[in-house]
Design a protein that fits this description.
- The protein is an alpha+beta fold and 108 residues long.
- It contains 3 helices and 2 strands.
- A two-stranded antiparallel ribbon has the order 1-2.
Amino acid sequence: MSRHADPIEAMERFLARTAPYDDPAGSPTATVELRTGRLRERFELTDRQAAALASALDAWHDPDDVGRCGHCHGHLGRDLRCRECGHLDGIFGATVAQHAARVAGRTD
């Protein structure tokens, strides 16, 4: 696991970034426990930090999520080909499909 993929270190960096904006008198209201392999860490979060964590998790977008197929609503791959039905989606897919149809229709 790379350094940036370590969830314990990521949580430590996240809490360090949120700490300066937290109420100094704020007391912990939530606990998060992370286990990575044999490592285990427990983090106490204030209300503000818990809200910031929830907001960050809600805002996260998987880089492999490039949308849904307009044909069957399945998941599209990075090449915009539907993993379920094989349909090429979007402007890129339509362009490729039109080009393929032109090439297939040639008689030369």
